[in-house]
Amino acid sequence: xxRQVPNDDxxxxxxxxxxxxxxEAGRHPRISAVEKRLVIPHATFYRNYPHLIEEFKLRTAxxxxxxAVTVDLPPTPAETxxxxxxxxxxxxxxxxxYAERIRQLTLxxxxxxxxxxxxxxxxDLTRRRTNRT
Length: 133
Known about the structure:
Layout (H helix, E strand, L loop, with lengths): L7 H18 L5 H8 L3 H7 L1 H22 L5 H44 L4 H8 L1
């Protein structure tokens, strides 16, 4: 008992489905996916549908070219300006946070230095000088 192979239109429909699903998933479409869906052995598929395989390869190459063109486009000047403005604002926020932290550490350092000097009995000469005049 020999199994009847699908006609060209059925194979094209499955190829369209595989191409569409591959594009949506971001994967490279494969002939083996078509073979699996049709439940046809690899050799049988290549023997009966060489013209459709070439068509599939051409469509795959075209979709790759289309994707490559859209991916390789440089950003527009407006997009670049918007990105740079966002980066500038982010940098300003980070600098403000760091400046505040430095201010806090400076105050804390002065307090600790003052406490150490009191514990050690160190006399602050600047205070004595201002008291004499």
